Amino acid sequence: MQVECQHRDEHSCRFILSGALPSFANAIRRAMSGEVLKLAIDDVGIYDNTSGLFDEMLAHRLGLVPLRTEPGTYVPIAECTCQGEGCDRCTVSYTLSVEGPGMVLSRDLIPNDPVAAPAIGDIPIVKLEKGQKVVVEARAVLSTGKEHAKWQPTTLCGYKNYPSITIDARCDACGVCVDACPRRVLRLAGRTVEVDEARVEDCSLCRLCERGCLSTGIGETPAVRVAADADRFVFTVESDGSVPAPEILRQSVRFIRTRAGELTSALDEIAEAQL
Predict the structure, then answer these.
(1) Can you give the pLDDT at residue 65?
(2) CB neighbours of residue 178 within 10 Å
(3) pLDDT at 42
(4) Helical packing angle, 245-274 and 22-34, nearest 10°
């Protein structure tokens, strides 16, 4: 199994996974979106809300604001020694007090711990007219996207099979397949068509090039064939700002390794019991 990183920064990550089963690739995808710990507002106390939004909608919007989450800074509330009461080891408190006119933004959420401030400060929450007011206290806790979508650290997390494109000797460079390709993966090269290697990963496997080739009357099989590499995948991950994209990948791999170890131990125990 090999991993080739093509792009990596705080907000996004793109890599190629080779020599893996589709089930393993999907396990990584599910772990990145559903098993990475992240802070999100889970409890809201509304003291005053004369805006145009119902209390429930206001609380919902606050819950979706991405909060910066430093790994290891907090523990899940279920594992904390406070036994669910909420303390500075497992919870972050926020206050929000804004009077109109104006737009209430995510930066107006003031945390008791600056490290857990909103990841993006200009997210609009509600617009206030003159005389309208919002006064709120909120509490954020750690959890995973498996419990609720607001704890998902990714805005985009997916993969596709690596495309494999072949062109046989029957190609007469008519150019129909080149014009049909929406991603411009194919190009004319003299008396034949060739694959632009710099754009091959952009192929969406739509096979419009194959249909275009068949429309020329070449026969029952096209000269250009598009297939999916069964054990090679192109991954793209984008973070919502709460957890850096590389850290999302590291935590997901760590989770899979831990679960694999637990499964191995359980199977060993079963095997020993049967002896």
Answers:
(1) 96
(2) 19
(3) 93
(4) 120
Q: Is cis: bond before 101, omega within 30 of 0?
A: yes
Q: Which amino acid type is present at position 119? A: A
Q: Which helix (H) or strand (E) holds 166?
A: strand 154-167
| Beta carbons of 134 and 95 less than 8 angstroms apart | no
Q: Residue 255 in 3-state DSSP?
A: helix
The string of DSSP codes covering 88-102 is TTTEEEEEEEEESSE
Tell me the whole-structure pTM to 2 decimals. Answer: 0.85
pLDDT at 84: 77
* Alpha-carbon 265 to chain mean position: 31
**Residue 268 CA from chain centroid, whole number:** 35
- Identity at 238, one-letter amino acid code: E
The token duo for 132 is 């309208």
Residues in CB range of 32: below 8 A, 6 or more apart: 153, 154, 157, 237, 248, 249, 252
Task: Flag residues of the chain having pLDDT under 50.
Answer: none
The sheet with strand 133-143 has its strands ordered as 38-49, 133-143, 91-99, 110-111
Using CB atoms within 10 Å of the CB of residue 135, give its burial: 0 to 12 exposed, 13 to 18 middle, 19+ buried. Answer: middle
Q: Give me the pLDDT at residue 55, please.
A: 94
pLDDT at 250 (0 to 100): 92
Check: CB of residue 130 under 8 Å from CB of residue 101.
yes
Output the pLDDT for position 242.
94
116 close to 154: Cβ distance less than 8 angstroms: no
Contact at 8 Å (CB) between 74 and 169? no
* H/E run at residue 14: strand 12-18
Query: Which position has the token pair 């804004």?
Result: 98
C-alpha to C-alpha distance for 74 and 141, rounded to whole angstroms: 8
